[in-house]
Automatic annotation (TrEMBL):
Organism (species): Rhodoplanes serenus
EC number, UniProt record: 2.1.1.170
InterPro entries: rRNA_ssu_MeTfrase_G, SAM-dependent_MTases_sf
Family: Belongs to the methyltransferase superfamily. RNA methyltransferase RsmG family.
Gene Ontology cellular-component annotations: cytosol
Residues binding S-adenosyl-L-methionine: G83, F88, E109, S110, T111, I136, E137, R153
Top-level taxon: Bacteria
Catalytic activity: guanosine(527) in 16S rRNA + S-adenosyl-L-methionine = N(7)-methylguanosine(527) in 16S rRNA + S-adenosyl-L-homocysteine
A Gene Ontology molecular function term of the record: rRNA (guanine-N7-)-methyltransferase activity
Record's protein name: Ribosomal RNA small subunit methyltransferase G
Family annotation (SUPFAM superfamilies): S-adenosyl-L-methionine-dependent methyltransferases
Length: 222
């Protein structure tokens, strides 16, 4: 194992700002505190997020993930998060949905060390999580899980991402895809290969960010 590195400190005001932006119950806040502690502990020996984002990790990563909750709605039970990395947004959502009866968040992450971290954190916090340490393409091909909601953040440009998402979308399912300022160009490129029914929701955490809410997706035939 690599020796532990010194990490930049978290700005305490940033936690308060994040929870003001995306309020959660005391129980969820306590779970998030424990998750952040575990994340920082593991970040000292491996890269789970860009070190430069640590001081503002509550707004930059936690609130950015929590803002999906209103879009997920009260009825959703099964969520699949593609390319979960250090747990954004999937593990954060699991912290928030831990008390929802029947909720399960599936985290798909092919890097074995990251998947091991996700499993350790889920076990430590007793979260309703299943970790799938494999490639999204393989997981999707098996169609072992058909979720109500599929999420992805910082994974791939939309033309590729929609191919990942497609096997998981049913008629009543939705995909919530966190995107940055290039979203319009990505949508226009993706629409050459896909018929997309989607809405764009402004991000609460980044002025140029958008959440692409996909509720219909069909491959174009040439
Ligand atoms: C840039 S990181 C983003 C992580 C996290 N979603 C976030 O927002 O912080 C992308 C993650 O997706 C994983 N990944 C990329 N392609 C994948 C694939 N085809 N199957 C499974 N995981 C993949 C990578 O290992 C990496 O952890």
């Amino acid at each position: 194992m690599k020796p532990a590195r010194a990490l930049p400190a978290i700005d305490p005001a940033d936690r308060a700002a994040a929870l003001a932006l995306t309020p959660v119950s005391c129980e969820t806040a306590a779970r998030l505190d424990r998750f952040v502690a575990l994340l920082l502990e593991r970040q000292a020996v491996m890269n789970l997020m860009a070190a430069s984002t640590i001081p503002t990790l509550w707004t930059r990563h936690v609130a950015d993930s929590l803002q999906l909750l209103p879009l997920i709605g009260d009825e959703a039970r099964t969520i699949v998060d593609l390319g979960s990395g250090g747990g954004f947004p999937g593990l954060v959502l699991a912290c928030a949905l831990a008390d929802r009866p029947g909720a399960v968040v599936h985290l798909v992450e092919s890097t074995r060390k990251k998947a091991a971290f996700l499993q350790d954190a889920a076990t430590a916090l007793a979260l309703p999580v299943r970790v799938h340490s494999e490639r999204i393409e393989d997981f999707g091909r098996r169609r072992a899980v058909i979720p109500d909601i599929v999420t992805a953040r910082a994974l791939a440009p939309l033309p590729v991402l929609l191919g990942y998402v497609y096997p998981f979308l049913t008629k009543r399912g939705r995909a919530l895809l966190a995107k940055g300022q290039d979203v319009e160009a990505e949508l226009s490129e993706a629409s050459k290969s896909w018929k997309i029914k989607a809405d764009l929701v402004p991000s609460k955490t980044s002025p140029e960010g958008r959440i692409v809410v996909v509720h219909g997706l069909e491959a174009r035939t040439r």
